[in-house]
Amino acid sequence: MNQVHKKVITILGKAIKTGESYEARFDVANLHTSSSVDVPVIIERSIKPGPIVLLTAGIHGDEVNGVEIIRQIIASGMNKPKCGTIICIPVINIFGFINLKREFPDGRDLNRVFPGLKKGSLASRVAYKLVNEVVKEVDFIIDFHTGGAGRFNAPQIRITENNKELENLATVFGAPFVLFSKDIKKTFRSTCNKLGKPILLFEGGKSFHIDKHVTTIALNGVKRILHNLGMLNPRFKASKPASKPVFINTSRWQRANFSGMFRASIKIGTKVIRGEVLGTITDPYGKFNHPVKALQGGYIINVNESPIVYQGDALFHITSKLK
């Protein structure tokens, strides 16, 4: 992690010295009613030098579990570092969060427009401001996400492959799974990597839902990272993970062969064998009952929790190759 001690950092146009606490305002555009919408950016700087860590959530407005994770970090005071700086942005896509929608009002997915344009679409302007007025000052980022469309993600860290620094940080975080995944063009993660800013992307739970177990795993992971960096406030203790993370090279979705009412019978995170029954698809009339059997062995890292599925819908995300 490249780190240069900065006595003064500039976040959203405000110069903040070591030892200061400051709540900046991330404002891009008003609502159509002319009401202002300001996203609080909470900055806590220790007097002691150390890394500048950025914690973000809510890039997708319906992924509320990530927002809850950062809310708890701030409410507990975990964001007050022993050294260095912690910057928290609980809700980046405030427009989507207000309406519990994934996208921006302009219909764009914020996580597909980075690094953004100063005079671009609304989503693009937010991306541009985040990158140029926040990200460029930081040393390390953790970005919190959930599964979408009713699909529940097992708690996992996603990183690019062949990066020892990220592998080490992911191991320290201690989520049950670490998934190697390629950077997708114009995502926040891809942009941070291009800027040389190490980033861990946490996935856990599903949209429109706050899950206590997932939240606890994420909070414990943040404690371990801060402890590893020498930043954890002495009020908190970093626990050891229950087990070593499972590193995953490749995985595949198993899709529905039939439309109908769906019920998964396998617990997320479970290791299954080929041919094992994972759930059932039935019709509403009691005439059809189709067992969904695993097409391969591996860990279940995502389960579709929708009660109704159509032929071709993704049901289970199963690991196919472990590191």
Automatic annotation (TrEMBL):
It comes from the Bacteria. Keywords: Hydrolase, Metal-binding, Zinc. The keyword Metal-binding applies. Signal peptide: none annotated. InterPro entries: AstE_AspA_cat, N-alpha-Ac-DABA-like, N-alpha-Ac-DABA_deacetylase. Residues 49-227 form the Succinylglutamate desuccinylase/Aspartoacylase catalytic domain. Its cofactor is Zn(2+). This is Succinylglutamate desuccinylase/aspartoacylase family protein. It comes from Geojedonia litorea.
